[in-house]
Amino acid sequence: MAGSAEPRAAGDDLDVRVARELIDKAREEGVSLVGPNGLLRQVTKTVLESALNAELDEHLGYVKGDAAGKVGTNERNGSSSKTVRTDVGEVRIDVPRDRDGTFTPQIVPKYARRVDGFDDAVISLYAKGLTTGEIQAHLEDIYDAKVSRELISKITDKVVDDLNSWQARPLDRVYPVVLIDAIHVKIRDGAVANRPIYIAVGITLAGERDVLGMWVGTGGEGAKGWMNHLADLKNRGVEDILIVACDGLKGLPEAISGLWPQAEVQLCVVHLVRASLRYASKKHWSAITKQLKLIYTAPTADAAEIFFGDFCAEWEEKYPAMIRLWRNSWEQFTPFLAYPPELRKLVYTTNAIESLNSRFRQATRRRGHFPNDQAALKVLYLVIRNPLKNRSNITGKVVGWKRALNTLAMHYGDRLDAQH
Q1: Do 127 and 197 share a domain, yes or no?
Q2: Highest mean predicted confidence (pLDDT) among 143-157, 174-188, 377-391
Q3: Has residue 107 been placed in a domain?
Q4: Which of 42, 67, 324, 393 has the fewest CB atoms below 10 angstroms from its CB?
Q5: Could you tell me which residues come within 8 angstroms of residue 123 by beta carbon, excluding any fewer than 6 positions away?
Q6: For the chain, how many structural domains are there in total?
Q7: Are residues 206 and 245 in the same domain?
Q8: What DSSP line would sit under 223-234, residue for residue?
């Protein structure tokens, strides 16, 4: 290992020397490093033109000026100028030509007006939540590149094929846990309206989180609507799910039971507590949450029933709607109480999706509304595809997964063993 440090250090020293030489040259000649006539653009022009000439050398079979090495009748035939957009802005370059017109450059392809890296920069800005207008202004301010909104839309539309492939990719046969939640965004469908986008995140047998699918809903989905959404997962290979953790979305439990009869549906406890507090005065929140914690941390379902009886006696007269919420949700809440601690942590909350949803909101907040469903899905897909640096990724591994897997195997051994 010690020997490998020297080449890296030498490379680092070379990078520093080159950078200093560029800065010194810029100072001596009174040239800015950036800007329309900046040194970086001059260097980019030189590098691109050198690369194009090297390509033509290879195509013709001889180096420029080496007439002795010439083979055949084809030869250089001057050059043509064109402007290309690069990461340092617009650069005017001379593209060499051959007499037969058979030279097809790869570095800057014929008719191409953008060099690799420019499109990636636009897509990255789009994924971070900038609108096409903001990207247009950013490119002009930073790179002095005048780019139309239409071009920016075309660049970001390149993602659509990737999105379609991602939406149709095959999935695993069994997922121990699937989390389902929703985010609301404004989409124009005749009129601008808040529309839910449902997100399903699966935990694989290896303990990896993976976004399985996203669907734009109407907000009024019943069991039939959910069957249409979740059938997508079934058609892509999901034959069994052990536990589905979700918010109390209407019709969802029925749809899950229809597609995966053995799946246990578990309401997200955090969502249930938050929904309870909507019916209560803030001055009572502390007392209510303490009593609710006794219920959802109870060692058994029987113990939870006792704590719930005390809770009803305390609050039903004052907040009957809150008590009704718990009674209506009890059937989907109680499976949680049968799980040991390792499993309870996995299905206690859909926070794994909520973390992703916070990034979705950052990317959608500035846009106002989307023109259609696909435009909204495109942005959310880019968020999934481009995880933030130095931030935990939704597709990361579950902490303590081996212990959880052992517990799952004790509870659902036959269904997991079928995988091997």
Answers
A1: no
A2: 174-188
A3: yes
A4: 67
A5: 155, 156, 158, 159, 382
A6: 2
A7: yes
A8: HHHHHHHHHHHH
At 5 the pLDDT is 42
Domain with 84, as residue range(s), is 25-157
In the chain, the percentage of residues whose pLDDT exceeds 70 is 74
Q: Is the dihedral of CA 127, 130, 131, 136 positive or negative?
A: negative
Contact 217, 242 (CB under 8 A): no
The number of C-alpha atoms within 13 Å of 8 and in the hemisphere containing its C-beta is 5
d(CA 127, CA 383): 6
User: d(Cα 116, Cα 217) in Å, to the nearest integer?
Assistant: 36
Mean pLDDT, residues 234-259 taken together: 88
Residues 183 and 322 in one domain: yes
Q: If 0-12 CB within 10 Å is exposed, 13-18 middle and 19+ buried, where does residue 373 land? A: middle
Residue 235 lies in a domain: yes
| Least confident segment among 169-183, 196-210, 348-362, 385-399 | 385-399
Please count the other Cβ atoms lying within 10 Å of the Cβ belonging to residue 162: 13
Residue listed under structure tokens 């719930």: 308
C-alpha separations of 147 from 36, 83, 87, 251 in Å: 15, 13, 13, 47
Q: Are 280 and 367 in the same domain?
A: yes
**Per the domain annotation, does 327 fall within a domain?**
yes
Mean pLDDT across 276-298: 94
| pLDDT tens digit sequence for 45-93 | 665 676 677 778 878 887 777 766 677 788 888 888 877 766 556 777 7
CA dihedral for 397, 400, 405, 408, sign (positive or negative): negative
Stretch (H or E) spanning 93: strand 89-98
The answer to the question of residue 13 being in a domain is no
Decide: helix, strand or coil at residue 246.
strand
Note the Cα 199 to chain centre separation in Å: 12
Do 403 and 254 belong to one domain? yes
Pick the residue with more confidence: 172 or 4?
172
What is the structure's pLDDT at 400?
Answer: 80
pLDDT band at 266 (very low <50, low <70, confident <90, very high): confident
| Phi, psi angle pair for 245, to nearest 5° | -100, 130
- Please state, in angstroms and rounded to a whole number, the distance separating the CA atoms of residues 326 and 93: 70
Biggest alpha carbon distance in the chain? 102
Measured CA to CA, the distance from residue 92 to residue 69 in angstroms comes to 31
Of 101, 128, 157, the one marking the end of a domain is: 157
